[in-house]
Amino acid sequence: MNQSVNSADIHKAIVEQQALQDRRKMMLNGALLLLLLAAPFVLYPVFLMKILCFALFAVAFNLLFGFTGLLSFGHAAFLATGSYTTGFLLSNYSGLTTEVGILAGTLASTLLGMAFALLSIRRQGIYFAMVTLALAQLVFFFFVQSEFTGGEDGMHGIPRGELFGLINLEDNLNMYYFVLAVFIGCYLLVQRVVSSPYGQVLKSIKQNEARAVSLGYNVDRYKVLAFVISAALAGLAGSMKSVVFQLASLNDAHWHMSGEVILMTLVGGMGTLLGPVVGATFVVNVEYQLSQGPLRDWVDPILGGIFVLTVLAFRSGIVGEVQKFVKKNLG
Amino acid sequence: MTMIFGVPLAVLSGQLLIGIINGAFYALLSLGLAVIFGLLKIINFAHGAMYMLGAMVTVLMFDTLGISYWVALFLAPLVVGTFGVLIEYFLLRRIAGQDHIYSLLLTFGAALIIQGVLVNIFGVSGLRYAMPDMFKGGMNLGFMFLPYYRAWVIVAALLVCFGTWFVIEKTKLGAYLRAGTEDSQLMQGFGINVPLLISLTYGFGVALAAFAGVLAAPIYSVTPVMGSSILIVVFAVVVIGGMGSIGGAIITGILMGVIEGLTKTFYPPASSAVIFLVMVLVLMFRPSGLFGKEA
Amino acid sequence: MTMMKKLLTSAVASTLMVGGAQAEISGDTVKIGYLADMSGTYRDLAGPNGLAALNMAIKDFGGTVNGAKIEVVSADDRNSPDTSSSTVRRWVENDNVDLVAGMVASSVSIAVSKILEENDRLGIISGSAASSITNEHCTPNHIHYVYDTYPLANGTASAVVQEGGKSWYMLTADYAFGHALEGDVTRVVEASGGEVIGTVRHPFPTQDFSSFILQAQASGADVVGLANAGADTTNAITTASEFGLTQSGQTLAALLLFLTDVHALGAETAQGIQLTTGWYWDMNDEAREWSDRFMAETGVRPTMVHAGIYSSTIQYLNAVAATGSDDAQTVRQQMMDTPINDMFAKNGRIRVDGRMVHDMYLAEVKTPEASENEWDLYQILRTIPADEAYRPLSESKCKLVNN
């Protein structure tokens, strides 16, 4: 008798705790949203958009790396495919509205992602990383060779145009809210994917692929889908970036870019939803602040130092460490 | 004149020889990587930086202390190898047992630091290093002019490659090494200092890269950034050969040198991309590389 | 009477013009942003020492202009147009930067010039090679100061052909820059009665050039032209010397070589190479005097880019002082109206397309015996007059030129 009361109490407590956590989360999310909405009035909008684009890139990468356990060393290829495709279309076909250009860029990198996935998905661990790197190098070669990219000069003067033919994106604030909306949409999508049954399978693949196979899951299909979604979102990030900056360049396709997104995800906390966002914000800021300040000649070694420090001391990244701290101290 | 696909035979033989020379060079660099990965399961993204350090140390030792090329051939790998031991001891050891990926990230970070600091000290234009007098000039092979130094590169690289392969695969020391890294507790029980063995192995692997750096010093522009673009090429070689396969790295290195050389003749713009194409193709049909064991 | 009237009106007009442009310096500060590669491939030819040159200029000018402060901000461009555009956008939109100086990578220069045009600020590009910067990418808001690919090809190629180097084999970096240079060289060689008999395009970057040098040797051409830059060029030259290219009777022509590159090669390896330069530290007393001061500051001899940064900053400040304004168009017009006569150039002038045209120099790298110290590297063979050197406006595709 007593026991059943107790268990009911416990159940109630758990539910309450859950509700408290949910409320906390909602409040946190609400506060974040307000911050993001107000940010362009305080901070420089183009810089904020740069952060959002890279945050989206890192979120996309993390879906694959953090949640599925696949380290792609070739994500720059998708970023660049998105930005070059969108840039090319918007520069050459003035009839296109901006969103069509962006969708086309996303579509192109989705298709490329599918090709990458089919060629690489069977490879394990470091071999997977290396195949994606090799494929991305081939894509880089293609962009270097193609006339339309402008080689190392890059593609310049991409028109921002009008969203749906209505909203003038030349205006930084309009552009910002558009980028923000896309970013939030994608973030929610990834959140949805991760918490869905499908996302649970991805996680179980990450933890123990053999077990997932023995449970009867067609592991390859799950991985391919994760890869394609990740490539699509990375491409979308590139497309947005080319519209924001009105340029696309080979830097987007270089393997250093693939390394940079790993750094962002790792520093922020891989396998957490917010981690890549925090990581991208952190890395973009550090790089920017350093390149302006008295330490401007030392950006690379300092970024290297952050890499080393993160791997040695904060392997779960900023968000991961905060979560640990909260769990320990605030229950 | 005999022509093959529109290229005179003489030119083609020259290109093949050049390919073999570059291949020997790649073999040397990828050998170090393969040793480090095969025995320690560390993905050493600092390998390019270590190669660069080998060349830089050679130049600096000459400029400041007048140390000659021949001495540098031994001393520079020793210096860089010691540096590698320190990196292993202070950094890599702390992530032992973690996913391989972390070693990749850690060494990548370390390479950025090393390279960045040297850029700030020495700039990027390159340091001067004169060709040792005895290697000046070359011989006429009929189909090409072969500088003596290139001939020496082949000899030196292949000797070191073969020696390393022999020690690791055929000697008792090699057996200890392989056993020590595979089952460290057992070897510890036999009274062998496994952590020391690991440090020394890493040091040896990067010393091989440094040796390649010394070989490079007289013929390539010696700059702090010289290792960054060669790094992924060498990685590709190791992956194609099968990560960790010592013999595989050597054979693939030479093979890739030849393939790259032929591409430089028939379709030069693709010569940097061809290795990656080969890598994709090889891994499609042989998931563990040409000489790797199935995982 | 008419004469008098004319004089009077023009005097009134010029007073009005100055008045019309609101002769004032915004915020009582002239702010200069220095943007360059501080850590990557192009660091040495501009980089931190370029900033030193800029600061020297400001100090020599007296630190203030018409009573207004001169401030400098600086940033590493990371060789990335993205990073550069966010930096420059913030500079011009938030920090009231009036002039952006430096700039090397063409992608950076083009991206920055678009932003300057949007915001009507001024940029002076000193490091870039691409001649497209004042051709199809020209804007009313930037000036290209030191050199570009056009005179490089013109100077070196025509000189070499005149000396009998009729047949050419081109070693080209497979990049927009290399293609442009190769195109310019081919045009000049053919115009001077020579012929390009072969081309090989190598990836950027390439470490080992032996295969390409072998192909160049097999071609039997008189001249091997290097249409590449930086480490690619130095590596190609080192390999050419190793394979005895010049001993076998071929000439090496490097289209773009900076003093820092030649210094890295040394006279032993680089001797005899002909090149075109916009300036050389030892070319006259004024240049020597300035570069002694530069060396005292930085420990190295200046490249033409360093000297260009110094000279252009002084010209800019002079123009601000003369007009009393930091308005981009006013200052640019004043700079266009004022011939440049200083340690960098004699009778240099800035054209409507933003190209600063000045005499260029054909130089030859000295032999080790003739070279007195590590920086004593060039012998100036000939002056290429400004009008011969640069692309004439009649061939321009710039939107500011009426063709």
TrEMBL record, chain A:
It comes from the Bacteria. InterPro entries: ABC_transp_permease, LivM-like. The chain crosses the membrane at residues 26-47, 54-80, 100-119, 126-144, 175-194, 224-249, 261-286, 298-318. Keywords: Cell membrane, Membrane, Transmembrane, Transmembrane helix. Its main location: membrane. GO terms for molecular function: branched-chain amino acid transmembrane transporter activity. The keyword Transmembrane helix applies. The keyword Zinc does not apply. It is a multi-pass membrane protein. It holds the Pfam family BPD_transp_2. GO terms for cellular component: plasma membrane. It is found in: Cell inner membrane. PANTHER family: ABC TRANSPORTER ATP-BINDING PROTEIN, HIGH-AFFINITY BRANCHED-CHAIN AMINO ACID TRANSPORT SYSTEM PERMEASE. This is Branched-chain amino acid transport system permease protein. The lineage of its organism: Bacteria, Pseudomonadati, Pseudomonadota, Gammaproteobacteria, Pseudomonadales.
Automatic annotation (TrEMBL), chain B:
GO terms for biological process: amino acid transport. CDD domains: TM_PBP1_LivH_like. One of its GO terms (molecular function) is transmembrane transporter activity. Keywords: Amino-acid transport, Cell membrane, Membrane, Transmembrane, Transmembrane helix, Transport. It is found in: Cell inner membrane. The keyword Transmembrane helix applies. The chain crosses the membrane at residues 12-35, 42-62, 68-92, 104-129, 149-168, 196-220, 226-259, 266-285. It is a multi-pass membrane protein. Coiled coil: none annotated. The keyword Acetylation does not apply. Its main location: membrane. GO terms for cellular component: plasma membrane. Belongs to the binding-protein-dependent transport system permease family. LivHM subfamily. PANTHER family: ABC TRANSPORTER ATP-BINDING PROTEIN, BRANCHED-CHAIN AMINO ACID TRANSPORT SYSTEM PERMEASE PROTEIN LIVH. This is Amino acid/amide ABC transporter membrane protein 1, HAAT family (TC 3.A.1.4.-). It comes from Marinobacter mobilis.
UniProtKB/TrEMBL annotation, chain C:
Residues 1-23 form the signal peptide. InterPro entries: BCAA_transport (IPR051010), Leu-bd (IPR028081), Peripla_BP_I (IPR028082). Residues 29-366 form the Leucine-binding protein domain. The keyword Signal applies. Keywords: Signal. CDD domains: PBP1_SBP-like. The keyword Signal applies. Belongs to the leucine-binding protein family. This is Amino acid/amide ABC transporter substrate-binding protein, HAAT family (TC 3.A.1.4.-). It comes from Marinobacter mobilis.
